[in-house]
Structures are given as structure tokens and as C-alpha cells.
Design a protein that fits this description.
alpha/beta, single chain, Rossmann fold, five-stranded parallel β-sheet, 135 residues
Amino acid sequence: MIMTPTKILDSYALIAFLEDEPGADFVRGLLLDAEDGILKLMMTVVNLGEVWYSIARADSPKVADRLTQEFQSMAIEVFEADWPLTRQAAKFKARGGASYADCFAAALAKIYGGEVITGDKEFKVFEDEIDISWL
């Protein structure tokens, strides 16, 4: 049986997509592949919250609500922060070198064997434990 590749979206990836920054086309391709069932896209509710507050700061809470609802209607599985995920994120945070939200994306990758999609250099501290695709 062939396993479907799993990709973990960091907030950096969705914001790059929204702002049409470098990497936007790559993320767009991942979203289309996920819609076609070629790969599985995942992110944590914590990282989706980062996307929301970034949009709310730049534009408004109303726009942030609309865009995050659109993301949630796409083929992105959004994970709640349960204890196993939170504990792994806390273990990463205890090492230092990354924001707590980044630790959640890294924890999801570690638990589910996925590859994080990001351009955030803070993820370099996780390169020894998880796979990362750099935008």
C-alpha cells in the first residue's frame, strides 16, 4: 500500500500564500494536490490562530474571520491542541530557540511523520528531529 505524503503547514506558509510572497506558488500547488487527494495537509489550531492574528493586525478581525473560514473549508486538516500534541510542543519549547506556536507545528510533524512547510528560520532547531521543506 502506498502511503499518502503528509505535509504540515506552518503559519508562515499560509501567510506567504495569502500575500503572494516567495513560496506562494509552492503552497498553492500543495493545496491543489491536497484537494486531489495526492497528499495530506495538516496544521494545528495554534498555527491557524497565528494566521488569524496576522491578518487581523494587517487588515481587520472581520477579514481574518473570512479568510480563516476559507482555509478551514480547504483540504487542510486542522488539529486541536490535545495533551499529546501540547506535551510534545512543550518538550520542543523547553529546548529553546523557537516560538511556542512553531513548536506546535514541529510537534505535529514529529507525531504524524509529516514534513513542515515553512520559511521561518526558527525551525532550524528542529532539523535533527523532523523533515522540513523550506520556502
